Amino acid sequence: MSEAGKSDSTSTQLTESSGLSLTARLEAVLLAAERSLGDARLAEAVSEEGESVKSDAIREAVENLNEQYEQTGRVFRIVRIASGWRVMTVPEAAPVLKRLLAQRQQSKLTPATLETLSIIAYRQPVMRAEIEAIRGVACGDVLRGLLERRLVRIAGRAEELGRPMLYGTTREFLKVFGLAGIDDLPDVEGLPREPSHRVAVAKSDPDQKDEPDKSDSEESSPDPDAVSDESTAVSATEED
């Protein structure tokens, strides 16, 4: 098949009608989204072949969905977050979720997690490849856990070919370990306290939650927007 034919085939698949109503499509997009989406982005996502959804239609669909949720006693609503829409639980569910989060925070850090966290703390900003070189094993799952706990963040990208992602600690890390700053870390023999790399593209929110990159090949992706726009999944085979 020619390149033109492949392109036409891909385009046809992307614009194929789902047979779902606008409200159903909107609900599916919001449930799958990992961050709030604005009217324009939602309109683009739910529009199908030969259809152009307007922002007014998006807002009307949001209202209809929220009415359905309220009538059926659901514990979530579509709410405006910053400049976009996102599915959030109702305030009444806070006590239940608070217990869940408390249990997650109280879970102990494994030795593998502490090793990885120590390397990041002393060598930040540091690439995943260097963490794995020091530990001698893959650390994808461990990094994801640290990111979920908000102990580690993606600090930016290195000034190297492909601009691989760099990891650093967060304010939550300082709170958990009772530190005023990174300078309060004790000296450890064989682990110098110095930056591993220079940051080419920095993260703006030190407490922003992200997931680690998929692999070493994808870590070298030249697209800097991947740092702030989309969370990426890890494919790690080792068990710590």
CATH class of the largest domain: Mainly Alpha
As residue ranges, the low-confidence spans are 1-15, 205-211, 214-240
In round numbers, the mean pLDDT is: 76
How many alpha or pi helices? 11
Sequence of secondary-structure elements: HHHHEEHHEHHEEHEHH
Instruction: Please identify the structural class as seen in this structure.
Output: alpha+beta
- Percent helix among the residues? 40-55%
CATH topology-level name of the largest domain: Arc Repressor Mutant, subunit A
Task: State the gist of this model.
The protein is an alpha+beta fold and 240 residues long. Helices cover 44% and strands 12% of the residues.
Description of the molecule:
- This protein has 240 residues and is α+β, with helices and mostly antiparallel strands.
- The protein folds into 2 domains: 20-92, Orthogonal Bundle (Arc Repressor Mutant, subunit A), CATH 1.10.10.10; 108-229, Arc Repressor Mutant, subunit A, CATH 1.10.10.
- It has helices at 3-14, 22-32, 39-46, 55-71, 94-106, 111-123, 128-135, 140-148, 171-177, 216-219, 226-229; strands at residues 76-81, 84-89, 126-127, 152-158, 165-169, 199-202.
